[in-house]
Amino acid sequence: MKYLFLIILFVSTLFADVNESVSKKEVQVGEEIEYSLEFNNKELSELVLPKEGFGPENSDLPEYYIEVIENEPNKLKVNMKFLSSGEKNLPIAWKDEKGELKTSNIKVKVLSSITESDKEILDIQEPLEFSGNFILRIILIILGIFLIIGILSYFLFKRKTKVPKIKDASFETIGERVEGAFELLLNELLKSKESIPHKEFVYTLSGFVKERLEKITDSSIQYMTNQELKEVWKTKLRMDEFNAARFENYFSNIKYMPNDEEISIEKAKNLVSEWRQYLRI
To answer: Are residues 47 and 131 in contact, defined by beta-carbon separation less than 8 angstroms?
Structure first.
C-alpha cells in the first residue's frame, strides 16, 4: 500500500500542468532574475506574456524591465528586473485547457539599494553643523566664500566662451564640430570588443547627451533633473513622449544598477547610435 501511494504521487507530479521556478525570491531594485515555466501543452492552451522592455504597457511609471523572453516547446524562460521595492507578482499568465486564465503564484521580495552615497546632485543635503572653536568656523566661512567666487568665475568664463546660439531645432552646423570630454570617453568605451561596465556606460552616455545639449540650447543643463531634461528632449530634439519617458527612466535607474553589471558592446553602440540621430551628429 505504501509503494502504491508513492507511485500515484510520482505520476501526479510528472503530469502536473505547470512547474514554476525563479532564480531568486529576494533581490535588490534593478537586480536581474530568471523565471522558468515548464508545462504540458495538453494542460496549457495559451501563454499570456508581456513584451520585452519596460512594462506594464500604457503605464506612466514602469514597474519592471523585461530583458529577454525565450519561449520554447513546453518551456518558457524570462530574464527581468524590478524597478521599485516591495513584494512583486511576476507578470506571467496562461490559459488552461478550459480557457481559464491562471497567473503566476511566485512572489519576489524587492529591496531598495539606495545608499547615502547615491544621492543625486539636487537632493536636499543635511544642514552643515559647525563644531570646534571660533577660528575653525571663520576658516570654514572663508573657504565657502572662495568656493562661491570660484563657481561664479567659472560660469562667467563659460558664458563668454560658449558657441553662438542655435535658434531652432534644425541644428545648423556652425564651423567644425569639436568632440567634448564625455564624447571622447564614450568613444574609448565603445572600442571594447566585448561587454563594458553598464553603470560606467550610462554615466558617460548621460554626460555626453548633456554636453551636446548645452551646445544645442546655448544654456547650462548640467544640474537639471531627469524630469526637466525630458522636457528639453521633447522640445529641442523633437523626441516623442514614449522614448522621452524611456530614456528618463533609464538614466534615473543608474543608481539601482549593481556595480558589476555588464552591457554588451552591441547594445551600447545601438543606444549611442540612437542618441546621435536625435542630436543630429
So the answer is: no
Measure CA 14 to chain center. 40
Q: What is the Cα 183 distance to its own chain's centre?
A: 20
What pTM value is reported for the model? Answer: 0.39
Distances (CA, A) of 189 to 210, 257, 274: 18, 18, 17
Buried b (16+ CB within 10 A) or exposed e, 144-156: eeeeeeeeeeeee
DSSP, res 17:
S
Helices (H) and strands (E) in the chain, counts: 7, 13
The per-residue pLDDT for range 42-94, each reduced to its tens digit, is 667 788 888 888 888 877 678 889 989 998 888 889 999 988 888 999 899 88
CA-to-CA distance for 63 and 84, rounded, in angstroms? 6
Find the largest Cα–Cα distance for the chain: 93
Whether residue 108 is predicted with pLDDT greater than 90 in this model: the reply is: yes
Q: Alpha-carbon distance 29 to 80, whole Å? A: 11
Task: DSSP letter for 264, please.
Answer: -
Nearest partner of 169 among 112, 216, 111, 221, judged by Cα? 216
